[in-house]
Amino acid sequence: MEYILYEQKGQYAILTINREKALNALNSQVLDELNEVLDNVNLDEVRALIITGAGAKSFVAGADIGEMSTLTKAEGEAFGKKGNDVFRKIETFPIPVIAAVNGFALGGGCELSMSCDIRICSDNAVFGQPEVGLGITPGFGGTQRLARLIGAGMAKQMIYTARNIKAPEAYRIGLVNEVYAAETDADGNVVKSAGEVLMTSAEKMASTIAKNAPIAVRNCKKAINEGLDADMDEAIVIEEKLFGDCFETEDQKYGMAFFLDKNKEKVKEPFKNC
Ligand code: CAA
């Protein structure tokens, strides 16, 4: 792998887009490698995944403009499909995926973050869909996911104006769940950069998720994702099936027996994923 770093840390893993010289821009090779790494995540062990970008400046500064500059109509469509297929894989990945946005999340970068379940960022993060300024539309799901996340009106404004927004505005409009600043000591010296605070927080969130019953967490993701694409009558049936699916699992039996046991001295065992 030239452009992807992957590290499993117990029950969660960190996937880093590692093309720092080009601000982690997504060319075909990065997308292929991303696809391959996702296919090889050990889902028997890993219960949450963090996606971030290498360096302190950029999460992902978009699809690779150099590569796109000479594409024909058919090649452009195929490039869009390549990105969309990988991002849909992330969106429907069995376990939760957290985007730790450590700087620029523009075009394909913003789109990558939106294919993740949860977005958190450092206070230097910048989000935007600059595509119309380049003569194209967003092509890795931006016209669809941005409107679903922040509403059609605000999405249209961001996409038509191609205006980038900073972390506080992304937080205000609900594009990110949390913004992290650097930690300073009493004299104002930085003791932990915003990027470091972001990663510590992302890892804490991932390990909190990983401590919960894995089958239940996966079923929650499926229920939310599939329910959002259905009308309410179908959506509650989707939930019923996934709710029912948790019963008779070891983890459901243990989780409920632990609650019902009145012995306050007992210590909760880890869930077994079965
Ligand atoms: N594609 C290819 N290379 C990129 C890139 C991209 N999207 N973004 C940055 N780079 C490269 C630059 O060309 C530069 O390379 P060189 O050192 O070889 O010249 C390097 O990364 C550093 O970038 P800058 O010198 O431009 O850094 P900066 O700090 O001055 O600016 C920036 C940072 C504002 C993010 C600027 O790089 C920029 O505007 N990048 C493009 C952002 C963009 O338009 N993204 C959308 C792409 S279209 C898309 O994503 C379509 C889709 O939906 C699928």
If you had to describe this structure to a student in words, what would you say it looks like?
This protein is globular. The mean pLDDT is 97. Helix 1 packs parallel to helix 3 and helix 5 packs across helix 6. The chain is 46% helix and 17% strand. It has a six-stranded mixed sheet with strand order 1-2-3-5-7-10, sandwiched between helices. With 274 residues, the chain is α/β, with parallel strands linked by helices. It has two domains: 207 residues, 2-enoyl-CoA Hydratase, Chain A, domain 1 (Alpha-Beta Complex); 47 residues, Lyase 2-enoyl-coa Hydratase, Chain  A, domain 2, CATH 1.10.12.10. The site of acetoacetyl-coenzyme A (CAA) has 22 residues, from helix 2, strand 6 and helix 4.
Q: What is the domain tally?
A: 2
Radius of gyration: 20 Å
- The third-level CATH topology of the largest domain is 2-enoyl-CoA Hydratase, Chain A, domain 1
Largest beta-sheet details = 6 strands, mixed
Sketch the topology as an H/E string, one letter per element: EEHEEHHEEHEEHHEHEEEHHHH
The amount of helix comes to 40-55%
Which parts are unreliable, with pLDDT below 50 for 5 consecutive residues or more?
A: none
Write the layout of secondary structure elements.
Elements: E1 4-9, E2 12-17, H1 28-39, E3 48-53, E4 58-60, H2 65-68, H3 73-91, E5 97-101, E6 104-106, H4 108-115, E7 118-122, E8 126-128, H5 142-150, H6 152-161, E9 165-166, H7 167-172, E10 178-180, E11 183-184, E12 190-192, H8 194-211, H9 214-228, H10 232-246, H11 250-260
Parallel strand pairs: 2-3, 3-5, 4-6, 5-7, 6-8, 7-10
Antiparallel strand pairs: 1-2, 8-9, 11-12
Helix pairs in contact: 1-3, 3-4, 4-5, 5-6, 9-10
Bound molecules: acetoacetyl-coenzyme A (CAA).
